[in-house]
Every structure is written in structure tokens, then in C-alpha cells.
Write the C-alpha cells for this entry.
Amino acid sequence: MSLFDKIFKPKKRPDTVGGYRMINGFNSVFSPTPENLYEISLVRACVHAFASACSKFTVTVNGASRPDLQNILQFTPNPVQDLTQFIYRIATVFLVNNTAFILPVEDAGGFLTGYYPIRPSFSEVVDTKTGLYLRYTLNDGKTYAIELERVGVLTNFQYNSDIFGSGNEALKSVLDVLNAQNQGIVTGIKNTSSPHFFGKFKSQYPEEQFMEQQDFFTKVNFLGGKLKDLILGDNRFEDLRQIDIKPFQIDPKISDQIRKNVFAYFGVSESIVTNDFTESQWLAYFEGKIEPFMIQLSNVMTNMTFTRREKSLGNKITFTAGKMRYGGTKALFDIAVKGFDHGFFSVNEAREILDLPPVDGGDKRYIRLEYGPMGELKGGGGSGEGETDV
């Protein structure tokens, strides 16, 4: 039994009526991006930068329906991942495949006990006698099915399908050039690292003897694939000289353009990938790439967890960027102090911004009392402070 089978108790698959067809005419079938996309170092660097940033999300479960989910999500969303690993995995699959699935983990009685991200090798939406199901096949070849409404589906570049994200065909030509460039560099290094000789025989040799003479020259002058200090040649050769092969070089402009195309596709800059960004660069990346994913993740997990009525009563799952740093120490200190003074942050929330541990009684919020209409301040306008339960 696989780890997946241990986490998810195998259920009988529903009888299929037929493949579900989208309103726009495209079949509801999803096949993820080939593995070689993630094996390209530049692509992996872009994906890692995104997933690492997203793994810092904090989660809050609001409402009275499932208060226990706060502890579950915060520490062990499933038996094999903590929250940072859970989000990192989802973000990675989301960026590589443009579609990521989250399944509910349930006990024997069908009670929700956690969440698990999956990366199927194939999936499709099928119409059954009891409604729409997501039928998916994992890399071990096993096929499973679950009600579509119970699955969290995150999408990127959603165009062809109403349910799944599009593939990465738009990036293929760029990656082909990048791959050819990398192979050219390797080939060029190999060619320039070993000596090459040109030899011209004085006499004509039959083909078999010609090859024998070539092998003999190599055997005499090369030891273990390395050139000896002394090259030997006799009067069989009319001309014997070493060929000077110039190192393989790529036009820097072409190389730079390829990198820029990959960065643009993933919505990231080289400064973000190399962790050498300014505050303005980080804020641009956060607002353009991270925040949309954070909002979608919150909505998807809320919808797969709570019913429409439960959501109307205020039950929701929210991911926030509380642990992300937007500036230097001084900027963070100013944010913490000003937010605390105006009642936006509690003591512990302000301490969290500064990477300080919480303290007992630090969940209350305070507000300065020297602000108010003229002549109505306590003590003639002193700088009193007071607690607030807001």
C-alpha cells in the first residue's frame, strides 16, 4: 500500500456517464507539463523564489464552524507536511503545471482532518450519475476519483478550460533555445579541452589500414585519453599539425534575452531570484505575483471547506503575508510602532513583525488618547493611553 493509500482510504470509483465537456467546447482533460521543464536550472530558480516566498504565509481560520482547523493548518495540514512545506508544494506545482489540486483528508467517518496537495499525471472531469467528479491518475499508475466540489483547484493562465489552467507551450521555443545553448556550452568545453590533430599520409592506404594507422597514432601519443608531452610521427606523414579550436562563445545579448524571456514568463526579476532586490522591487513582485496567488489560495480552501451557509456566517480560511519583510529594520520598526500606537496591532502582532517571540497578555490592542476634538482631551490634552477591545 502506498503512502497516498494510507492517507486516503481507497473508495469505489463512481460509474462514469461520460467525459464532461466545457461550455467553450474544450474537453475537461488536464495533463501536466513534462518533467523536463522543472529540470532546467533557470526555471527551477524562478519557481523556488516564488514557492519560498509563499511558504511564509500565515493562516487564519475565522468562524465558529471549525475552530480546530486553525491548529491543524498551522502545524500539520497532513501527516507528512507542515504548513510551510504544504504551501511550498502547492506553489511549486501551481507555477510549473499552471494547475494545482488540494484534496481533503478525512477520517473513517468522513470528517475533515486535513488537506493534501497532489500532482496527478493525468486528470479529467467526468459526469456521473451523482454529479461531476475529478478522476485523476497518480505517477504510480493508480486512478482515483472524488467529487469536484470537494477539491481545491488553483489555476494559472486559465484560458482553454473552465476548470484547469493552460499548458506552458508558450515557453517551449524559449526553453528549446535555452537547452540548445546549454548543450552548446558543454560541447564547446569538451571540444576545446582535448587536443585535435590533422595528419596527411604520403602514400595511399586501403580503408582498413587507414583506420589502423589512425588508431596507432592515437595509441602512441595519448595515454588514458590525455596527450603526452612528446608527439611522435614518422615519415608516413607528409603533414602533421595540431588544430587550434577556439572556445565556444555565446552572444551575451542573445543569452541575456533568453533569461529575460524566462523571467518575464514567470513574472519575476533576476534580483528576486538572486535575493538581491530593493524594497520597491520586492513590493512590485509581491503585488504582481504573490498576492494574487495568496488571495486565490484563500478562496479555494474556503470554498472546499465550508458550505455556502457557513461562509455567509463568516467562516473562511485566510492566508496573509504577515511573516514577509518589506523593508529594513528601521522600516519594520516604524510599521510596528505606528500600527501599535493606532490600535492596528496588538503587542504580539507588533513583536511578530520584528521577529520577537510573543509575551503573556500581549494579545490586547492599545490606542493613544491624545487625539480628539479640541478641549475634550483628558487632563487638558495629555498623552494618556488606553486599552481597546476593538
